[in-house]
Specification:
The protein is α/β, with parallel strands linked by helices. The chain is 29% helix and 25% strand. It is elongated.
Length: 427
C-alpha cells in the first residue's frame, strides 16, 4: 500500500548500520558493461533502484545475479554478449541513473540507444552535458521519439570542460573515456565520493585514471578492461539522515559502518546547531547537547559543500531549532516540495525562489502527508518522529528507491514506525 504510519515521541537509542551507497552502486553496475569478464560488487544496498538497474542490464543480455542469504549484498555481473544495447523506457522510467549506461554502451559496442531518464521530479538534470562530451569524443548523437541514440566506431580522447559541475555527466563520460583512443582530460569535474568510488572500480578493471576526486581528471584510454571485485562506499546520505534522526529526537544514536570523511559539511552544521557528535573511524555517535538546538543557515553546494540530498532532512531539523534558519537550494530548482507537507504538520516555513525561511521551534502535529520524492520522504519521516500523534505518509515507494529497510532500521532503535497493514510491535 506504500504508506508509513509513524507515532512520534520516542528518542532513538542504540546502533544503526549504514548500507552501501545507491549513488555509487548504480554507476559501478553500469561500469560492468565495459568488459566481457565478471565484475563482483560488494556492499550493494537492497533498494528499488538497484533492482531496476538489474533489469536494465539483463534486458541488454547481461547475466546479473543479486546475492541472497549471507551474500545478500553482493552482485555478480557478466556482460559477455550485449545482444540488445538499448535502455528501454518501460524499465528506466522511474530511475534517473539510466543515462549512466550511455557512455559505457557506446565505448563497448559502438552504439547506444537510451530512453530519456525518469526518477524524482525535483527539477531538471539536463543530459546535454553528456551529449556534448560524447560528441567531442567523436560520437554522433541523435534524438528520436524519447530516445537518445549515439554511435561511434571508436571514441577518441578529447579535452572536455564541463559547463557546470555534473555528477552523472562526470561518471558517464569517465566510463566512455577509459576505452577511448588516446588521452582525455576533463575539467570542472564533480568531486563527490561516488565519482571516486567509480574510478576505483575502473582502475581495478585496468583503466588508467588520474585525479579522481579533484576538479581535473586525466584518462589514458586502453583497448580492453578485465573483471574485478570492488566494495561499494557507505551511503553518506543515509548516514546523514540517521544523524539527523538521532538529533531531532534527542536520542543517543550510534551511526555505524559509515565514512565520516564524506560527511564534513553536515557534521560542521550539526555541531553549529548544538548537536553533540563523537566522530570515530567508521562511526558517529549523535546525542543531545547541553541546551536546546540552535538555528543555522545552509546553502547547498556541490561536494564538498552541503549536499542537496540532505537539504530536506535538514529542514525537518530546522523546524525544531530555536530561531530562524535560511535554507538556500542551489542545485535543483524544484526541491522544496516537502515544505507544504511540513507546514501541514505545523511547521512555519515560507519559500521565495530558491530560499526557504524556517522559523522554529514549531510544535509538530500528526497529519496525513504525501511523499513527493526520495529525500522529501525521509524529511517527512524525521518530522513524524517528533510530531504529536500518529502521522500517515503516502507514496513511500519514493523512499524505497534509495533507503534499504528504512523502517526496520529505525524500529530497531526505538522508532514507532510501520508500513500500513502492520501492527506496532508485529510484522
Amino acid at each position: 500500500m506504500d504508506k508509513f504510519v509513524v507515532r512520534g515521541g520516542n528518542p532513538l537509542l542504540g546502533t544503526i548500520k549504514v548500507s552501501g551507497a545507491k549513488n555509487s552502486a548504480l554507476p559501478c553496475m553500469a561500469a560492468a558493461i565495459l568488459t566481457e569478464d565478471e565484475v563482483i560488487l560488494e556492499n550493494i544496498p537492497q533498494v528499488r533502484d538497484i533492482e531496476t538497474e538489474r533489469k536494465l542490464l539483463a534486458s541488454m543480455g547481461a547475466e546479473v545475479e543479486l546475492g541472497y542469504g549471507r551474500a545478500q549484498h553482493r552482485t555478480r555481473i557478466k556482460c559477455g554478449i550485449l545482444s540488445d544495447p538499448i535502455a528501454k523506457y518501460e524499465i528506466v522510467k522511474t530511475m534517473r541513473a539510466s543515462s549512466l549506461v550511455l557512455g559505457p554502451l557506446i565505448a563497448r559496442t559502438g552504439m547506444a540507444r537510451v530512453a530519456m531518464p525518469g526518477g524524482c521530479a525535483i527539477g531538471g538534470r539536463p543530459i546535454d552535458l553528456h551529449i556534448k562530451g560524447l560528441e567531442s569524443m567523436g560520437a554522433t548523437v541523435t534524438y528520436d521519439h524519447g530516445y537518445l541514440e549515439a554511435r561511434a566506431d571508436r571514441l577518441k580522447g578529447a579535452h572536455i570542460v564541463f559547463d557546470k559541475i555534473t555528477v552523472t555527466g562526470t561518471e558517464d563520460l569517465l566510463m566512455a573515456a577509459v576505452l577511448a583512443d588516446g588521452e582525455t582530460v576533463f575539467e570542472n569535474c564533480a568531486r563527490e565520493p561516488e565519482v571516486t568510488d567509480l574510478a576505483a572500480l575502473l582502475t581495478a578493471m585496468g583503466a588508467k585514471i588520474e585525479g579522481a576526486g579533484t576538479s581535473t581528471i586525466k584518462v589514458q584510454g586502453v583497448t580492453r578492461l578485465h573483471g574485478a571485485r570492488h566494495r561499494i562506499n557507505p551511503d553518506r546520505i543515509e548516514a546523514g539522515t540517521f544523524l539527523i534522526a538521532g538529533a531531532i529526537t534527542g536520542g543517543d544514536l550510534n551511526v555505524d559502518a559509515c565514512e565520516p570523511k564524506h560527511l564534513g559539511a553536515l557534521i560542521s552544521k550539526l555541531e553549529e546547531c548544538g548537536v553533540k557528535l563523537d566522530v570515530g573511524k567508521d562511526s558517529i555517535r549523535v546525542r543531545s547537547g547541553s541546551g536546546p538546538l540552535k538555528a543555522a543557515d545552509i546553502s547547498t553546494q556541490e561536494y564538498p559543500g552541503f549536499p542537496t540530498d540532505m537539504q530536506a532532512q535538514y529542514m525537518a531539523l530546522a523546524t525544531q531549532t530555536e530561531g530562524t534558519s535560511i535554507v538556500t537550494e542551489n542545485i535543483f530548482e524544484n526541491r522544496f516540495m516537502h515544505v507544504g507537507e511540513l507546514n501541514r504538520m505545523g511547521a512555519d516555513i515560507t519559500v521565495q525562489g530558491r530560499t526557504a525561511t524556517v522559523r522554529g521551534k514549531s510544535p509538530l502535529q500528526s497529519a496525513a502527508v504525501m511523499c513527493s520524492d526520495l529525500r522529501a520522504s525521509a524529511s517527512l519521516v524525521l518530522a513524524a518522529l517528533v510530531a504529536d500523534g500518529e502521522t500517515i505518509l503516502d507514496r513511500v515507494y519514493h523512499l524505497d528507491r534509495g533507503y534499504e529497510h528504512f523502517e526496520d532500521k529505525l524500529r530497531g532503535v526505538g522508532a514507532q514506525i510501520r508500513r500500513m497493514g502492520e501492527v506496532f510491535g508485529k510484522k
